[in-house]
């Protein structure tokens, strides 16, 4: 029987949408907020969360998941944010959490991970 994982420390989670799933935006954000809270509460901390595409909207002013992301970042989870996407959406001056970098940083995080999860 395969060993059960008790954490996500060697995993990277890719967040490419303004929330989780394909429901309306309010439900997507509620689902992601719940997911991130559970990850933190259960101490299932991934190595990194990578934000690109519409997902960069989650790290800026007005995002409903800033408290959850801040808590994860304070516990050592890297929050990597696509700089090209931030610039594309005109959000450079609104970033609240994370490290704005390039696709190279996101690729490096993926290559170091044992597991890459897209939500």
Would you kindly provide a written description of the structure presented here, covering whatever features stand out?
The chain is of the alpha/beta class. It is built from four helices and five strands, in the order E-H-E-H-E-H-E-H-E. It has helices at residues 25-41, 66-74, 83-88, 103-112, and strands spanning 11-15, 48-51, 78-82, 99-101, 115-118. A five-stranded parallel sheet has the order 4-3-2-1-5, with helices on both faces. Helix 2 links the parallel strand 2 and strand 3 (78-82). The chain starts with 10 loop residues before the first strand and ends with a strand. The model has no long low-confidence stretch (mean pLDDT 93).
What is the H-and-E element order? Answer: EHEHEHEHE
DSSP strand content: 15-25%
Distance from first to last alpha carbon: 27 Å
* Discrete helix count: 4
Structural class: alpha/beta
Q: Which strand order does the major sheet show?
A: 4-3-2-1-5
User: Rg from C-alpha positions?
Assistant: 14 Å
Largest sheet: 5 strands, parallel
Chain-averaged pLDDT: 93
Give the overall shape.
globular
Question: What helical percentage do the residues reach?
Answer: 25-40%
Number of strands: 5
Low-confidence stretches: none
